[in-house]
Amino acid sequence: MADAAGRLTKLAEEVLGAPLPVRIRAWDRSESGPPGAPTLVIRHRRALRRLLFKPGELGLARAWVAGDLDIEGDLYEALDQLAGLIWERDDAPKPQRAAVLRALARPEIRAAARELLSLAGAPVPPTPPAEEVRRRRGPLHTLRRDKEAISHHYDVGNDFYALVLGPSMVYSCAYWESPEATLEDAQRDKLDLICRKLGLREGRRLLDVGCGWGSMVLHAAREYGVRAVGITLSEEQATFARKRIAEAGLADRIEIRVQDYREIKDEPFDAISSIGMAEHVGRTQYAEYADALYSLLKPGGRLLNHQIARRPLADEEAYHVDEFIDRYVFPDGELAPIGRTVGQLEDAGFEVRDVEAIREHYALTLRSWVTNLERHWDEAARLTSAGRARVWRLYMAASALSFERNRIGVNQVLAVRTPEGGASGVSLRERTWNG
């Protein structure tokens, strides 16, 4: 059992056909790998059993969430180094995968695999961490299943989110004047940008779909004098938002509902904001989502759809959500290329007037959230669970890298329910967004 780290390093390099870019420290205190590199800490042999019984991303995710696996040193550098080796990415069906399969057919690799089995210990599949979403049943994106998925992600404690998000309580990409700006300033600037794009002013009525903790409707009512309705599927978010609104003295101007967008029967609104919500809709429901928002707008009304996008694939049918995100972060969430989103909004009848890509802004936002979480780590783990805090740290850090490397992006799409006469209400040089 001595020198488990050296044996694991040798096995990994033989399978990968390349030097391992990180150092390994094993449960027997042995170490191997390049000095000064981030260290992959295998705290328990159980991590190997998780990989053997569920090879790939899900096995690694379970080991990470359970605390069997950790990283010491620069988390971003380690994830960046490992991304091409262990995390599947949508931008490439890898030739590397075929190389791994060929390597596994070689006698020396089969011998190494037997050695891995001996290192792993008792051949018993470990129980998945409690934070994992168990197998779901029934069709995707029913009202009930969507509510359960939203609850998994958002009903983990308002106090926990307050530590991560800071006083703004905004859980979407901020809008940075410069990397030196504060997160609070950047989130305020994002909310104000959306209000200006929507042309909000006194007397107009706003619907915020997926209103979170109420920050958008609060800003719009306080700064632009609108009346607003915010909807969410999270009971905890709604409770928090109503309290903030009452404390701000705006309860007569803002209503918060626990409601699905498919259930709204109101008279049409002057404007709709959907900020970081459409990722939960799903590709099978997106046309219904676009149709519903179109029907909820008055002629001339504006929609601001703020949504994460992925890179398009040569074979779109091959798209799948990675297992870590699906089981631990956003159950049933799906991303679409920006071209498809624009096309579906147009199919619903919208005139798309502006698309602004703010990919780099999300990387800055996520790094700020990771810093907040790490600064308050002990309290965050106490408020939810150590496993849940580990989920959030990994997904936010990995997502920051994905935005930086252009694997995913985020866009604000401004669309108008333009009347038949063609008068959109958008000025000739509206890019100043003065409303």
Proportion of beta-strand residues: 15-25%
Largest sheet: 7 strands, mixed
The pLDDT mean sits at 90
Which outline best applies?
elongated
Number of helices: 17
* Backbone CA Rg: 24 Å
Count of beta strands: 11
Helix content: 40-55%
Strand order in the largest sheet: 7-6-5-8-9-11-10
Distance from first to last alpha carbon: 69 Å
Q: Which residues sit in consecutive blocks of at least 5 with pLDDT less than 50?
A: 87-97
Strand/helix succession = HEEEHHEHHHHHHEHEHEEHEHHEHHHE
Estimated structural class? alpha/beta
Structural overview:
The protein has 435 residues and is of the alpha/beta class. The chain contains 17 helices and eleven strands. It has helices at 4-16, 46-53, 57-66, 75-86, 95-104, 107-120, 143-154, 158-165, 183-197, 215-224, 235-247, 286-295, 323-329, 338-347, 359-375, 377-383, 386-404; strands at 23-25, 31-32, 39-42, 69-72, 205-209, 227-232, 254-258, 269-275, 297-310, 351-357, 408-416. The strands form two sheets. The chain has a seven-stranded mixed sheet. Strands 2-1-3-4 form a four-stranded mixed sheet. Helix 2 (46-53) packs antiparallel against helix 3 (57-66), helix 13 crosses helix 17 and helix 15 (359-375) runs antiparallel to helix 17 (386-404). Residues 87-97 have low confidence and may be disordered.
